[in-house]
Structures are given as structure tokens and as C-alpha cells.
Fold:
Amino acid sequence: MTSDPLHRTLALWGVATAVIIVALIQWIDLPIASFFYAHRETTWVAFFAAITDFANGAIWYSVALIGVGTAAFRHSARTKNPNPARLRQEVRAWLFMAVSMLSSGILINAMKFAIGRQRPRFLFAEESTSGFYPFALAIADSSFPSGHTQSIWTAMLALSFLFPPLRPVFLAIAATIALSRIVVGAHFLADVVVSVFIAFATVLLWRRWFTREGVSLALIEQRPIKAS
Structure:
């Protein structure tokens, strides 16, 4: 096993996640999907249906792009008070977010195609099927892993490093919207769990690369707590 602490931690975490995924697919996923399908007409399911599309990656790529544009507008040589160092730092931070999303998204889609797990809706269709069809299903019909979960968790984790004081808010958003993917019947629990792991692994690896020169990604610094 690698002696690198981060690689070692991610490897152990990956093994644990794999064990959990097997257990979920074997015993847990179908009962949970059936429960939420039975309650699909309830008000609380309607709430989750209303927020689930906030996981759309286009939203968070746009946020990163706006961040780069704002940095250029505020700090470039064309401004009244240019700050090249701050410009580089802010652009670097937003690129960290975009690259993390892009790389994890590519991995997720490759896994979807290779694994080909049917979405929960096939379980409740007239044919009532549930299974794996590697390299056969269209990506839109493939459930494992969850692309929306990968998108929202990667974006929120990246933002939590850019704005550390808001980390609890970002993590709460990520958890709520990831849960919505299960509640609305778009994904099984295992699909969401593996995507959360992929998001964490990708963000942590890219964070180390983007901070390798000792440059902070934080755009707002965490204030120290004063002793009483």
C-alpha cells in the first residue's frame, strides 16, 4: 500500500465504500426505492423534486465561470487598482472547482456506460426489470453512479475550500440534494454513496495539486475563534 497519507486514506475509504456498495445493492437499494415509490405523491417528495435539479452541473460550471470573470473584472491590469497576485489566486481557485467537476464527471459517465445499472424507474415499469447491462444502456438510462450527486458534491466541496466559513452550509446543501436523488426515484442509495466518495477523492486530490506551491485556495479566510 502507498505510503502517501492521502492516497492511503483514499484507498482504505475506497475499500470500505466498495463493501458498503455491495451490501446496499444486495439488500437495501430495492426496499428503499420501493418505499419512496409508494410515497411519490406526498408533499415532502414534491419538495425534493423541486430542488433536485439544483444538482445540474451546468449551474455550477457557470458559477466557476462567473468567478473567473469577476476576478478578471476586479483585479486585471485593465482595472483602476490591478492586483495580479490576487487575480492569479482567484482564477486558480475557480479553475480548481471546474477541473474537479470535469474530471469526476468524465469518470462518472465512463462508469455509467461500463456498468449499465438500470435506474429505479425500470423496476416499477410494466416490465419490472432491475439489473446491470454493461456497455448496452444509454447513459441517460444508467443509474450507477449518480451524476447529479457527483456534480453537487464536487461543487459544494470545492466551494467549501474556497469559502471555509460557509462549509457547513455547502455540505448541508450537498447532502440534501443528494438525498433528493433517492427520494424522487432517480437513483438507488448505492448510486449516491459511490458518487459522494468519487467527489471527495477527486476534490482532495485536485486540491493538493492546486495548492502544491503553497498557494491558498480560500477566497475568504476562516476567522480564528477567540478564547473566552
About this structure: The mean pLDDT is 92. The chain has eight helices and no strands. Residues 5-210 form a domain with the Vanadium-containing Chloroperoxidase; domain 1 fold (CATH 1.20.144). The CA atoms of residues 79 and 86 lie 13 Å apart.
